[in-house]
Amino acid sequence: MGTDLWLVVGLGNPGPSYAGNRHNAGFMVLDVLAERAGGRFKTHRARGAATRAEVLEGRVAGERVVLAKPRTYMNESGGPVRGLRDFYKVPTERLVVVHDELDIPFGALRLKRGGGDNGHNGLRSITRSLGGDKEYLRVRFGVGRPPGRMDPAAFVLKDFAAVERKELPLDVDRAADAVEALLTSGLDAAQNTFHAS
C-alpha cells in the first residue's frame, strides 16, 4: 500500500457473451497489461468477502499497480472501484480508468483527467461512487459512432465488426502502451505521444 501505487481499472461486462463487445474494450486492454505484468487475475477478497472484482497486483513498466476488472455490470462499476480505492488507499489522482468511447473514431485514443461522463454509464457510476470526484485519469478507447439510426446502447453491446477485428489487437496493444506511458511519463507526455498518432 502507499502513495506510489496505481489502481488501473478496465471497464466491461462480465461473462463470455460480452467478451467481444465494444463495451469491453477496457477489459481487453487490461488483459494485455496483465500479460505484460506476467500475472493472472484473481477474485479480490477483502475482509473475507469478494469486492466483486478480478485483480492482479504487480508491476507494469516498473510501476507498482493493481489491475482490476469489476465483476459487476458496467452501470454498477462504481461500487467495486470505490471498494478497491479504499482498500488499497490509492488517491483518486492515481486511479486510471480504461473505457470505450463512442465520440472517438475506432482505434483512436484520448487521455484526460476529469470531465463529464459523456453518457457513459460506467463513468457515471464511478463518479457517483467517488462522491462526485471526477479527477481520475481516463484512457478513452475509440469505438466510433453507430451506423444510421442504431441506438448507441445497442451498438456498444455488439462485437467489433470483422474489419475492425483485424486491427483490434494492434489498437488494444497501443492502448496498453498508453497506460504505461501515463504511469511512467505523466499525462502531458502521454497525450503528446498518443494524441498525435
UniProtKB/TrEMBL annotation:
List the keywords (alphabetical): Cytoplasm, Hydrolase, RNA-binding, tRNA-binding
Query: Which E.C. number(s) belong to this protein?
Result: 3.1.1.29
Keyword RNA-binding on this protein? yes
Under SUPFAM superfamilies, the record lists: Peptidyl-tRNA hydrolase-like
Q: Site Stabilizes the basic form of H active site to accept a proton: which residues? A: D100
Q: What does the UniProt function comment say about this protein?
A: Hydrolyzes ribosome-free peptidyl-tRNAs (with 1 or more amino acids incorporated), which drop off the ribosome during protein synthesis, or as a result of ribosome stalling.
- What's the protein here called? Peptidyl-tRNA hydrolase
Originating organism: Actinomadura yumaensis
The lineage, from the top, is:
Bacteria, Bacillati, Actinomycetota, Actinomycetes, Streptosporangiales
**What gene codes for this chain?**
pth
